[in-house]
Amino acid sequence: MSVEADSWRESARAIAAGVRAGDLSAAVVVEAHLDRVDEVNPRVGALTVVFAEQAREAAAAVDATVRAGHDPGPLAGVPFSVKENIDLMWSATTHGWRGALDAVPEQDATAVARLRAAGAIPLGRGNMPDFGMRWDTDNDVFGRTRNPWSTRHSPGGSSGGDAVAVATGMVAFGLGNDYGGSVRVPADAVGVVGFRPTGGRIPSSAARRRDPVPLSLQHFSTTGILARSADDVAAVFDVVDGADDVDPFAVTRAAAAVDTLKRAAIVRDPFRDGESEANLRAQDAAVDALERAGWEIVEGQPPLLDEAVAGWRLLSTTEMQAAYGPDRWGPPLGAGASRFLELAGGAQSHIGSVEEYMAVWARRAVVAAAWQSFFRENPVLVGAVSEARPAHADADLADARTAGDWWRRYRLSVAANYLALPAIAVPTGLAADGLPVGVQVMAAAGADHLALAAARAIGQARGVPTPISPR
Questions:
Q1: pLDDT tens-digit profile of 14-34?
Q2: Are the C-beta atoms of 140 and 96 separated by less than 8 Å?
Q3: 185 in Cβ contact with 204 (< 8 Å)
Q4: Residue 70 and residue 60: Cα distance in Å, rounded?
């Protein structure tokens, strides 16, 4: 088989380098990925819409640019996916919900526009649960996405479609977003790298913000990147990073000086209720990789962690219930999301007064200051993405207690959302159950390149377990 026909196995960097040099044809690269989609997507349900003709046209334009001796862009010919809630003019931004099947945006989100200008080619839409309402990926419009390592298991969510598309080689990278771990959770479940940057580093998923959104969504959520290596994540981040003239909260920051900050704290069992053997082995592997790359490792416990988690929980449940409750929309949510909200509602804590709501938001600055002080001493924090192994599909719908407590699996992850910190999930190998396992690397707000540097060191030492074919 030729290198071009087998290009779905290649990294984003390798594809772009080959296309830019004229050694690879973007058209053949796209065909190889479309063939891969035909082969595996019916088995995993990761991509909801496939842009075959548009992708072919874009690839032909890239090849023509190369033949003319012009620069096609740093990500020339690289196929990628776009989550169903990120604006892309080629199809409706459905959020996985039947009520938005005709919501075709008039322009691309800034991240999508920047990637297309850099020569990258949208190949399809990534599946998600209705409005990201679960840490699983299923909806009544497009159906279920399956974990390629074990189709009985959940791929995580809510960016599960993009994670699985990357893991199976249908695309080289994907765009998702992360409000409570929605990039890192599926990345961890399927063995790819998932990065949520500092809040504001990547402009909003919506090309134009017309409707008000909850305050927690503005502060906790950000567009993120899924790829098979931290190197590829960094290449994509270099393209999409920075303020635009649309998102009022988007920011541009200088990169951190990595060489002088190579000190990482490892947090094991941060909540003192037991760490799984798989997580402990993954953390040992990460420590070994970082030490071999010249990093100093210390044991560490971030401050006010319980308060960070509780703050995320209180604000998210209170605001999401108000924003996405049963009386808020016309067509109802799908069966899975509706059932999850129904079950979880009774176990959720909600803020009962304006005074308490104001107090919880006010305490966020106190918690953030304490974490900032921690990061001055320990520029990187390494821990788990999930406290539990990947569950079977729909396990979160077992009963009210299970649904209401599901968030506890991801307590360290949601702390990053509460504080708008950069955090990246990176695989370290396979656990005894045959499923992927990895760690999460976090850094101070704005120190995204430092988190990426640590993730890169871990990934280079541990290898890349994907792409794989569904099992």
A1: 999 999 999 999 999 999 999
A2: no
A3: no
A4: 14
As a whole number of angstroms, the distance between CA 196 and CA 185 comes to: 11
Query: Mutual orientation of helices 230-240 and 110-117 as an angle, nearest 10°?
Result: 100
Q: Taking the model in full, what pTM does it have? A: 0.97
Residues in the chain: 471
Distance from the Cα of residue 225 to its chain's centroid: 5
Instruction: Report the number of secondary-structure helices (H) and strands (E) in the chain.
Output: 15, 13
The H or E element that residue 38 is part of is: helix 26-44
DSSP characters for 186-213?
A: HHHHHT-EEEE-STTSS--SSSS--S--
Mapped onto helix, strand or coil, the DSSP state of residue 126 is strand
Predicted confidence (pLDDT) per residue in 308-349, tens digit? 999 999 999 888 777 766 556 678 899 999 999 889 876 666
98: tokens are: 């039947």
Query: H or E segment at 368?
Result: helix 354-377
Per the structure block, which two tokens stand in for 383? 């821990």
**Residue-level pLDDT at 1:** 43
Q: Residue 414 corresponds to which amino acid? A: V
Q: Hunting for tokens 């409570």 — which residue is that?
A: 180
Answer yes or no: are the C-beta atoms of 232 and 173 closer than 8 Å.
yes
Percent of residues in the chain assigned helix, strand, coil, to nearest 5: 45, 15, 45
3-class SS of residue 263: strand
Residue 225 pairs in a beta bridge with: 175, 195
Backbone phi, psi, residue 121, to 5°: -125, 115
Let me know: does 389 contact 188? Beta carbons within 8 Å: no
What is the spatial distance between Cα 418 and Cα 307, in angstroms, rounded to a whole number? Answer: 10
Residues with pLDDT less than 70, the chain? 1-3, 207, 256-257, 259, 324-329, 346-349
pLDDT at 217: 92
